């Protein structure tokens, strides 16, 4: 186990059943994230964790639900708080989201880096998204033993159809592995 102090902290929480009241996001964040990561003081810079919160925009439905609106705002404030806590600053926090003005206002470019990854009609054949999407099916199709020209034709068709959506090309590639 690489992070024994984290492992022990989680084990203690589970064994003692001391998980904070779910109605208070701030206490949960402090208890489960801040305290946990504060135990990682002796990690070499090269081994620091990268924490990814994917599809943050999916929480925006909370914003439109009056009884849960404060939960959404509280979640974003907790994530924004990250940059002000000394022992959290050393970890990279990556948030992914569709374009959401509310989220963008909470994390302006003055305090974060915004990267737009093209999808749909914004994907061009030569851009990095197409290149990334090309790599996975190529490696998968190479392994099924089809001839190179068949694979090239398949990729020339699949990559543009994926329109930047990796899960789509992954699903199609999986089915081609079963029945080329």
Fold and architecture overview:
The chain has 180 residues and is mostly helical. It has two domains: 103 residues, no CATH class; 59 residues. It contains nine helices and two strands. The protein has a two-stranded parallel sheet. The mean pLDDT is 78.
Keywords:
mainly alpha, 180 residues, single chain, 9 helices
Structure, briefly:
By secondary structure, this protein is mainly alpha-helical. It contains 9 helices and 2 strands, in the order H-H-E-H-H-H-E-H-H-H-H.
**How far apart are the termini?**
41 Å
Number of separate strands: 2
Q: By helix and strand content, what is the structural category?
A: mainly alpha
Ranges with pLDDT <50 over ≥5 residues? none
Helix run count: 9
SSE ordering: HHEHHHEHHHH
The profile of the biggest β sheet is: 2 strands, parallel
Percent of residues in β-strands: under 5%
Helical content (DSSP H or I, runs of 4+): 40-55%
Supply Rg: 21 Å
How confident is the prediction overall: mean pLDDT? 78
What's the number of structural domains?
2
Shape type: extended
For the largest beta sheet, what order do the strands appear in spatially?
A: 1-2
């Amino acid at each position: 186990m690489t992070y024994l102090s984290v492992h022990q902290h989680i084990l203690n929480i589970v064994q003692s059943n001391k998980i904070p009241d779910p109605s208070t996001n701030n206490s949960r964040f402090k208890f489960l994230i801040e305290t946990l990561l504060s135990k990682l003081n002796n990690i070499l810079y090269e081994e620091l964790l990268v924490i990814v919160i994917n599809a943050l925009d999916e929480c925006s439905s909370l914003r439109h639900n009056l009884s849960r609106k404060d939960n959404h705002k509280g979640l974003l404030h907790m994530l924004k708080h990250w940059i002000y806590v000394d022992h959290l600053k050393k970890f990279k926090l990556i948030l992914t989201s569709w374009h959401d003005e509310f989220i963008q206002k909470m994390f302006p470019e003055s305090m974060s880096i915004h990267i737009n990854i093209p999808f749909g009609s914004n994907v061009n054949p030569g851009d990095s998204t197409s290149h990334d999407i090309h790599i996975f099916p190529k490696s998968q199709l190479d392994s099924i033993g089809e001839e190179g020209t068949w694979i090239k034709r398949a990729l020339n068709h699949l990559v543009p159809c994926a329109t930047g959506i990796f899960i789509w090309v992954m699903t199609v590639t999986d089915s081609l592995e079963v029945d080329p």
